[in-house]
Design brief:
Layout: H1 21-27, E1 33-39, H2 51-73, E2 77-82, E3 87-92, H3 94-102, E4 106-111, E5 114-116, E6 158-160, H4 163-166, E7 190-195, E8 214-219, H5 232-242, E9 249-250, E10 264-267, E11 275-280, E12 287-289, H6 290-303, E13 308-311, H7 320-323, H8 325-336, E14 340-344, E15 364-370, H9 373-378, H10 383-386, E16 390-391, E17 413-418, E18 420-423, E19 443-446, H11 449-470, H12 478-487, H13 496-499, H14 506-515, E20 530-532, E21 537-541, E22 546-555, E23 561-570, E24 574-583, E25 590-592, E26 598-608, E27 614-620, E28 634-638, E29 643-647, E30 656-662, E31 667-676, E32 685-694, E33 696-698, E34 701-703, E35 706-709, E36 714-722, E37 728-738, E38 744-754
Parallel strand pairs: 6-10, 7-11, 7-13, 8-11, 13-14, 14-15, 15-17, 16-29, 21-38
Antiparallel strand pairs: 1-3, 1-4, 2-3, 5-12, 9-10, 18-19, 20-22, 22-36, 23-33, 23-35, 23-37, 24-32, 25-26, 26-31, 27-30, 27-32, 28-29, 28-31, 34-36, 37-38
């Protein structure tokens, strides 16, 4: 006779029913529940590779042993024991799942969910005006793709990504002050990334001595090594971290508007001296399980003992603080074991779309900044049709997820992510290795926070090498690495909830790593750097509550520093200008896009006054992603000097687009709205636009506001600021201007939240929601409220 369901639960007193052959037989039926089990007993963390870590692993194994035996008795499948966290995953029956949940030694049992990887848009077949039965009065040939000065090297090959020079990592300019000019390449540092499959023997991963940068490449997808994969993410990660830059690639025909002359590039990583560990979790179908992620993280830390782990993936769960808590526990344990974890914030735009696990305070959350040389080289986003003189860099990319997290925090910093190149395999085994026309290619576009996060992972390797060389071989803690990277980030003038502390500055980070005084040693200081004890402030309270935010400043440079300290936040929008354009398949002028398809387009003009700190422009459009009878709509801005200044980077049909530019050039600007004409027709209709400018105003008060620090000296500075007057969030920054020695501007992002007061039985809040950029993994604008 079958046992009844109540016998599967612990009897009174909390003692489980002993396992018998009959019970084991019953619990072995219908083994189809994929679960992750976290044990109650969590052993204190230990640095990976230490004797303490080995002892810890043994303690965890003994704690799991009774349940491992039980899983064998009930014929569980896919059993995977972890050591980074006292946890395991398995496929069990519903009855065994209930038994595990009732076990007094088990903290939680959660579903082993499926996680979808990036799904690149299929390249549409080129369309021609004749097939669209267009009016003969429409002139589709009036635009010609020009050559933008400086896009390609006049002789030789240019260093790529452009972001290497923007972040003072490396440069083609002789004598430039970069991390590479200090002799730092990430040598001796092991960096892992989690993505899809890759070819570790790709030419750009082969060092001058003939060896590969890869010291390990493991498959956790279940497909096995060497199986067909997308590959696009892995090639982005590996090239951004440790591309060798020894191969020359001609990208003049990467788009449909091939240049008549060669456009030669060399693709170099931020840390070409580092060793790489590839962790493949996404299979042929570009999906995986959370347990695969956990296994990859566990392997990287416990087995390979890496120094840095990059995670260019994420999701936007609700509620964020619990839905992926197991993954957060693994990242926290990696952090405690001495591993720096960098995570992409997401590609869903700036309005409160930061994905998990980037919301974990122990990781380094990375947004994307602009490096627009790629657009000038390829004519992507119609750059070479409308820009005539150049392009602008160092703004926050429109695709970069930013804003406020559910818990109130924001991104830590930004790094180049929009856009560049990565080497690839022109092979059927790597379906993501294509050019802008969808053709198999030995280079691919590298973009998004999926490029920015490994950019910072590479910079972390530079910091670790520099620290080791000046601190007797000791490795800095992940917290110190984070503080160094965030403290030295360059303020680019963007809102704090978009840029975090600012743009990665590898040169300054290396100088600080070489100079910072710790228990590992007191090296001779160099450069002009200022270490902050806080990477960001995030406070919540009643509306109008006063918050006190102290931070310790330490002069880690070689000279005295006079530091001016202030608070800033964006003021209200001003000089708002509005209008609309119309896109219509039958009447709109057209150009041929970089992918070979026809695009409808329309232009508009607006003016910007002198002295503005930020320009924000947005569009809304009638699109329906579900029906497929509309297409994404893009917006670019051309500044008064003819430079490509901004691109809305639509990730799908999101009905909305937004761009912003810091310190906009005064004068008359041009906006271009465009959309591809697909086989089912493009997006047709009226598209309203709005532009506005903003200036910074003061945030709170800072004391002292002027600080003089000798080398090695520290001083506490305190900001006092009020939460917003009504429920909701606002962002600002503490700004540090090191006026002696050329230290420049650095910031600490500050986010303040006012909660809804329901003590009287009622409470009100309000806000405005807009659309999103169509990201498959994101959403439109989100507003958070706490009660």
């Amino acid at each position: 006779m079958a046992q009844s369901a109540p016998l599967l639960r612990p009897p009174p007193g909390g003692v489980e029913q002993p396992m018998t052959p009959a019970l084991a037989a019953q619990l072995s039926r219908n083994v189809d529940q994929h679960v992750i089990v976290v044990m109650k007993s969590q052993v204190a963390a230990a640095r990976a590779g230490s004797q303490a870590a080995a002892v810890r692993s043994g303690v965890i194994a003994r704690d799991q042993a009774p349940l491992m035996k039980e899983l064998s008795q009930v014929h569980a499948t896919h059993v995977q024991a972890y050591r980074l966290v006292n946890a395991f995953s398995a496929t069990v029956s519903k009855g065994e799942e209930a038994r595990l949940k009732a076990d007094p030694d088990v903290e939680e049992v959660t579903p082993d969910v499926t996680i979808q990887g990036a799904q690149p848009d299929p390249e549409p077949a080129p369309q021609h005006s004749a097939s669209l039965d267009r009016s003969s009065s429409v002139d589709s040939s009036s635009l010609a793709a020009s050559t933008i000065p400086g896009a390609c090297a006049s002789s030789g090959s240019s260093l790529t990504p452009e972001g290497l020079s923007l972040t003072n990592t490396d440069s083609d300019v002789s004598g430039a002050k970069t991390a590479r000019s200090l002799g730092i390449t990430g040598a001796g540092v092991k960096v892992a990334y989690i993505a899809d499959g890759i070819d570790p023997d790709n030419l750009n991963f082969i060092r001058s001595d003939g060896t590969s940068v890869f010291v390990d490449n493991e498959d956790f997808s279940g497909d096995g090594p060497g199986e067909p994969t997308n590959g696009s993410e892995a090639f982005i990660d590996a090239n951004t971290i440790a591309g060798q830059g020894l191969q020359v690639y001609d990208v003049s025909d990467f788009s449909a508007q091939a240049d008549s002359s060669a456009c030669d590039i060399r693709i170099e990583g931020v840390a070409p001296g580092a060793s790489l560990v590839g962790l493949d979790v996404f299979g042929l179908d570009e999906d995986t399980t959370e347990s695969n992620f956990l296994e990859a993280i566990n392997y990287a830390v416990d087995t390979d003992q890496v120094n840095v782990l990059d995670e260019s993936f994420g999701s936007n769960p609700f509620p964020d603080v619990t839905a992926l808590d197991v993954l957060e526990q693994f990242n926290d344990s990696a952090f405690a074991a001495g591993v720096v974890v960098t995570v992409a914030s997401g590609d869903a735009g700036p309005t409160n779309t930061i994905g998990s696990p980037a919301t974990d305070p122990d990781v380094i959350s990375v947004g994307a900044s602009t490096q627009f040389q790629f657009y000038a080289q390829t004519n992507d986003a119609a750059a070479r049709y409308f820009a005539t003189t150049g392009w602008l860099d160092d703004n926050v990319s429109s695709l970069s997820s930013g804003g406020f997290e559910e818990s109130g925090g924001t991104v830590d910093l930004v790094a180049p992510g929009d856009a560049s190149f990565a080497s690839c395999d022109a092979s059927a085994d790597f379906s993501g290795c294509v050019n802008l026309q969808g053709q198999s290619s030995d280079v691919e576009e590298s973009s998004g926070t999926s490029e920015a996060a490994p950019f910072v992972a590479g910079a972390a390797a530079l910091v670790i090498q520099a620290y080791r060389e000046t601190h007797g071989g000791a490795t800095p803690s992940p917290l110190l690495v984070k503080e160094i990277l965030v403290s030295t980030a360059t303020d680019i003038g963007a809102p704090a909830d978009e840029q975090g502390a600012g743009l990665l500055n590898s040169y300054k980070a290396v100088q600080m790593a070489e100079s910072v005084s710790t228990s590992d040693g007191t090296p001779s200081p160099t450069g002009v750097t200022l270490l902050k004890s806080v990477t960001q402030f995030s406070d919540a309270g009643a509306p109008g509550a006063q918050e006190t935010l102290p931070v310790t400043l330490t002069n880690t440079g070689a000279e005295p520093q006079l530091v001016l300290v202030s608070g800033r936040m964006l003021g209200p929008e001003q000089d708002t200008q509005t209008g609309s354009v119309t896109l219509d398949d039958a009447t709109s002028p057209q150009f041929t896009g970089s992918d070979g398809t026809l695009d409808n387009y329309a232009t508009f003009s607006f003016t910007v006054a002198a002295g503005q700190d930020r320009l924000d422009a947005s569009i809304a459009y009638p699109g329906d992603a579900a029906t497929g009878d509309s297409a994404e709509v893009g917006l670019i801005l051309i500044d008064p000097e003819g430079r490509f200044a901004a691109y809305s980077s639509p990730e799908g049909v999101g009905n909305f687009g937004d761009v912003d530019v810091t310190k906009p050039t005064p004068g008359t600007w041009t906006g271009v709205v465009f959309s591809p004409v697909t086989a089912d027709g493009g997006t047709n209709g009226t598209i309203p636009w709005q532009v506005a400018t903003e200036q910074y105003t003061s945030l709170g008060s800072v004391s002292p506001s002027v600080v003089l620090l000798s080398p090695g000296q520290s001083q506490v500075v305190t900001m006092t600021a009020d939460t917003p007057a009504s429920p909701g969030d606002e962002a600002g920054a503490i700004v540090f201007d090191s006026v002696l020695g050329g230290g420049g501007f650095t910031t600490i992002p500050v986010t303040l939240r006012s909660m809804v007061d329901v003590s009287s039985g009622e409470g009100t809040f309000s806000g405005m929601l807009t659309g999103g950029n169509g990201s498959a993994d994101g959403e439109g604008q989100v507003d958070y409220y706490e009660f």
